[in-house]
Amino acid sequence: MAPERTPPAGHPIDEDGARQLVAGAYGDACRRFVQGCCGPLYWWRVDTAEREIVSNGTVTFVETPQRILGITAAHVIRSYESAAADAAVRLQLGDAIIDDLPQRLIQISDTLDLATFALDQSVLTSIGRPAAPITLWPPKRPHEGYGIMLGGYPGQERDIDQPLNVTFGLFTALGIARMVSDDQITWLVERDFEVESASVPSMPSHYDLGGISGGPLITTIENPTNFVTFRLGGIISEAHAEFEYVIAKCGDLISADGTIAQS
Prior knowledge:
- It is built from five helices and 16 strands.
- By secondary structure, the chain is α+β, with helices and mostly antiparallel strands.
- A hairpin with a 5-residue loop joins strand 14 and strand 15 (228-240).
- The chain starts with 14 loop residues before the first helix and ends in a 13-residue tail after the last strand.
């Protein structure tokens, strides 16, 4: 169990004030940040009149000192590859068509469940909404018991009113890192400690988060002057509805060129 977090001496915000902040402007800022740094990756059948969407995941956008990266879970890419081997499918990142994924791929680690591929500004501007890659580098994993936020695009929030007219609903959550190991971070839904926010509402009980794999887990860093910055902490790998927890792989396993450690 992580130790209880206590603010530093002289911190201007007490616990009640912090909860009000999260429920208001802070919650809004968190959601905007997550919305800008990730997008839905999905693939659909081109050989059927219905243009059936086979599945979807989430991609996190990062701009390192060396290149712009798309980062997702390895099993998302493997699922697309399996579908593409069996049927004619098209891959999209939002509105942007990705016909050259094999050429863009940098590395896939099935062991760590991480995959990286090259992005460029032309893809980001074609997604259909503003994209703002995370620019603070390198990633920094959170400390146990300290604040994080996370997000992605659950499949059940996908709305299709006609073939290929698709809207993806963004899921975001504020919480604390419950466990941090050598390669992963665990977030638990702790109902007794939830903070209600109009912009970041409480997650429904046993909510199906399938589709958020590849989404960002963000470390919130507070400096000695109480200024908060957001940094990539991890990439979501697993989401369990029944037991209400999410596991993310640590982002610092990824190098600035997109290669993955221990793969």
